[in-house]
């Protein structure tokens, strides 16, 4: 009897290869998704920590006025709680690539032989640059369109343009890929900085706190403040303390959020696949109901019948696991390599943790078995008489909901269509499962398409919100009235406005500004942007409150990155250049492509920092906003500024900003689309299974219909209409669900990107 049962299970599985293959594929898709996402996430999470902490990131960076002497670091290290101290300097310069100017960050290193903080890994060429040369972060070569040995024309704000040789390349895991930021990263000596025309020395002090407290931001802030007080006693003015989140990669929180979403969707795919298995097993139980009756007649009990069909599911799951686990490992490798490129990581340990395949086996076996247990147990408990009396024809009238009865009795509808409506609601529990399966897959698919399209729309909004084409930042405040008029006379220039900016921080009890800025001066930064009230060059989306309308009022509008910290009407204290000032929050805005920003009146700002009639920024709009025209006009603007001997710190075209923002989330949005396709595929398989079950359980009924005159075409139309109705209902439900999901996903990805 035991052998006979096993042979029956094998025969049932092999007698319908199409059905078995469909179930194996459905389960495999879910297991594949889980393995791919969990495998890649586990590797990336581990390697992100290893890579970033391996750079020995500074606990805090103190920005100093003037230059620090060489022996100062030794005395700083004697302060309680300070493990290391190192002089440093970071200079924002410009590099020329194919007649276009791009920003470049120059990291000036004190001692290449004994680097203590923010280390990098040599990749090729020299490990120590000589005067007139630099090391380049390997991802910057793409932006520079250069290779080792080439010379790059670089110009600092106070110097002259000079060619600097690329003498070597390095990998710096603490920086975002240069192609994401559309900028370059160079590592130079102080002598090279002086050769570029800059006279400054080391104006940054990077410190490391003791290991036991290295992940406590409050402890780091306290120790950094102590160092700042010590420096002030020596006569050094500390104007900013930068304390980024301790031990966290700049993209760590964003990556954790998006991967968590992917993990949830992966398990959702497996759950949907398990529902498909459940409906398919219900179909098999319906198809073999008389066989169950025969088995019980010759002595089988309900437990034995249940075990036999559950064994069938176990074999299907095993086949799916054998197919999915190796493929998911390959996909995980491909995915984490893509993420490594996105995060500028070097994968040193490619091993996927053992718990990932164990979880795949557990979920790939457990979830389908639990889902299929209900129809299997219910079908196995049927009585012998009821099983043998089943002929596949309904013996009693369907108990349709009254609304279905009324709808199906409308005379103007086709009789085939009316019958298909009643058939669709014949097995309501099965219909609910099928609708849930299709709706979930459809909703996810629609959500992915919506998010992808919304992402493209957001990129377009960069141009719609920024009605200028070039942002020029100066080294120091300059009188702008004359230069603005000269720029307006250039051909193709539509408008020129003087703006201003400064790094800011929320004022605390500390005597020095403490920000969360990372060493790249972008991630974690908070900027105060001063603009003419009523400017036509900015068209931001207000989400709450109102825009600036009084040039003399100390009003501030905050963008989405700061919204969670304050509410409308709050009086907040912000510190700029060591000056504390009180502001009233009058609005919140959605600013695509910007870090944390506070918008204020330039009139109030210039009074605050004592620069009336001067500014450090120009924003210029052209008649023709195309990239081709902007490149030409930008060159004319830069030539005029050089002729006027105005020291330019950086020029940022809007098209460059758009490219930088687009690079941040492209891989993740494409991954979301891939998962949506898998869910849609599972949903489609579910509809196929439901329609097959509907036909199988009505085989004799179809025979009766043929006997009383129904043609094959009419029967086929009946089944097609039933499938279309189920699909139509699921699309409606999916549409409603997708609106909710799209809103959530849009906000999540938008917050991560901006």
Can you give a write-up of this model?
The protein is an alpha+beta fold and 754 residues long. The chain has 4 domains: 196 residues, no CATH class; 183 residues, no CATH class; 155 residues, no CATH class; 155 residues, no CATH class. A hairpin with a 2-residue loop joins strand 17 and strand 18. The chain is elongated, with a radius of gyration of 34 Å.
Compact summary:
This protein has 754 residues and is α+β, with helices and mostly antiparallel strands.
Average pLDDT, rounded to a whole number, is 83
Oligomerization state: single chain
| Percent range of helical residues | 40-55%
**What summary fits the major beta sheet?**
6 strands, mixed, barrel
Strand order of the largest sheet: 2-3-8-5-7-6
Present the secondary structure layout:
Elements lengths: L1 H14 L1 H38 L5 E5 L7 H5 L5 E16 L2 E10 L11 E5 L7 E5 L2 H5 L6 E5 L6 E10 L6 H4 L2 E5 L1 H6 L8 E6 L7 H17 L4 E5 L9 H36 L1 H9 L4 H42 L11 H26 L3 H5 L13 H7 L6 H10 L3 H38 L4 E10 L1 H8 L4 E14 L7 E2 L10 E6 L9 E5 L9 E5 L11 E6 L2 E12 L5 E6 H7 L5 E9 L4 H17 L4 E6 H43 L2 H9 L4 H42 L1
Parallel strand pairs: 3-8, 5-7, 10-13, 14-19, 16-18
Antiparallel strand pairs: 1-9, 1-10, 2-3, 2-6, 2-9, 4-7, 5-8, 6-7, 11-20, 11-21, 12-14, 12-17, 12-20, 15-18, 16-19, 17-18
């Amino acid at each position: 009897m035991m052998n006979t049962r096993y042979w029956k299970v094998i025969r049932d599985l092999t007698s319908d290869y199409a059905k078995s293959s469909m179930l194996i594929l459905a389960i495999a898709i879910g297991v594949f998704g889980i393995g791919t996402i969990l495998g890649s996430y586990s590797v990336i999470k581990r390697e992100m920590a290893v890579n970033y902490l391996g750079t020995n990131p500074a606990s805090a960076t103190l920005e100093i006025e003037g230059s620090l002497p060489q022996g100062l670091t030794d005395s700083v290290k004697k302060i309680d709680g300070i493990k290391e101290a190192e002089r440093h300097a970071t200079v924002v310069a410009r590099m020329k690539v194919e007649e276009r100017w791009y920003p470049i960050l120059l990291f000036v290193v004190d001692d290449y032989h004994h680097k203590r903080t923010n280390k990098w890994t040599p990749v090729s060429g020299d490990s120590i640059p000589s005067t007139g040369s630099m090391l380049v972060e390997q991802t910057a070569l793409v932006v520079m369109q250069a290779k080792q040995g080439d010379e790059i024309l670089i110009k600092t704000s106070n110097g002259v343009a000079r060619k600097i040789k690329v003498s070597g390349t390095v990998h710096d895991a603490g920086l975002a890929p240069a192609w994401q930021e559309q900028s370059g990263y160079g590592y130079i000596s102080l002598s090279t900085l002086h050769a570029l025309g800059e006279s400054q020395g080391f104006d940054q002090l990077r410190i490391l706190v003791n290991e036991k407290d290295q992940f406590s931001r409050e402890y780091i802030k306290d120790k950094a403040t102590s160092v700042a007080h010590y420096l002030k006693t020596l006569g050094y003015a500390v104007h900013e303390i930068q304390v980024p989140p301790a031990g966290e990669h700049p993209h760590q929180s964003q990556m954790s959020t998006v991967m968590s979403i992917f993990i949830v969707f992966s398990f959702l795919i497996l759950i949907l696949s398990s529902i498909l298995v459940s409906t398919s097993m219900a179909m098999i139980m319906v198809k073999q109901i008389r066989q169950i009756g025969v088995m019980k007649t010759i002595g089988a009990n309900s437990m034995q019948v249940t075990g036999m069909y559950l064994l069938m599911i176990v074999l299907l799951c095993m086949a799916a696991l054998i197919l999915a686990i190796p493929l998911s490992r390959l996909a995980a490798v491909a995915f984490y390599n893509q993420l490594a490129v996105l995060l500028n990581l070097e994968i040193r340990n490619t091993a996927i943790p053992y718990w990932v395949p164990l979880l795949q086996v557990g979920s790939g076996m457990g979830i389908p078995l639990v889902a299929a247990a209900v129809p299997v147990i219910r079908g196995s408990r049927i009585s012998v008489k009821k099983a043998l009396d089943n002929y596949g024809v309904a013996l009693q009238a369907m108990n349709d909901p009254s609304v279905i009865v009324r709808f199906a009795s409308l005379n103007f509808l086709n009789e085939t269509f009316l019958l298909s409506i009643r058939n669709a609601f014949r097995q309501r529990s099965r219909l609910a499962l099928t609708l849930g399966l299709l709706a979930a897959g459809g909703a996810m698919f629609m959500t992915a398409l919506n998010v992808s399209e919304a992402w493209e729309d957001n990129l377009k909004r960069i141009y719609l919100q920024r009605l200028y084409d070039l942002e020029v930042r100066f080294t120091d405040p300059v009188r702008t009235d004359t230069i603005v008029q000269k720029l307006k006379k250039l051909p193709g220039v539509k408008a020129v406005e003087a703006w201003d900016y400064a790094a800011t921080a929320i004022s605390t009890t500390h005597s020095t500004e403490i920000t969360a800025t990372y060493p790249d001066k972008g991630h974690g930064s908070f900027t105060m942007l001063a603009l003419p009230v009523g400017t036509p060059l900015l068209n931001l989306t207000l989400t709450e409150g109102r825009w600036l309308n009084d040039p003399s009022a100390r009003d501030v509008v905050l963008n989405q990155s700061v919204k969670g910290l304050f509410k409308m009407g709050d009086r907040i204290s912000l510190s700029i250049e060591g000056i504390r000032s009180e502001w009233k929050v009058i609005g919140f805005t959605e600013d695509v492509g910007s870090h944390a920003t506070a918008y204020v009146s330039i009139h109030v700002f210039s009074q605050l920092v004592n620069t009336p009639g001067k500014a450090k920024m120009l924003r210029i709009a052209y008649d023709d906003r195309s990239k081709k025209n902007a490149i030409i006009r930008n060159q004319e603007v830069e030539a005029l500024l050089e002729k006027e001997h105005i020291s330019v710190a950086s020029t940022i075209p809007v098209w460059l900003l758009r490219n930088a923002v687009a690079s941040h989330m492209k891989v993740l949005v494409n991954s979301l689309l891939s998962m949506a396709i898998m869910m849609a595929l599972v949903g489609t398989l579910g509809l196929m299974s439901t329609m097959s079950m509907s036909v199988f359980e009505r085989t004799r009924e179809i025979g009766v219909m043929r006997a009383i005159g129904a043609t094959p075409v009419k029967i086929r139309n009946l089944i097609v209409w039933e499938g279309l109705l189920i699909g139509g209902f699921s699309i409606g439900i999916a549409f409603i669900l997708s609106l909710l999901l799209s809103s959530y996903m849009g906000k999540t990805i938008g917050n991560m990107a901006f």
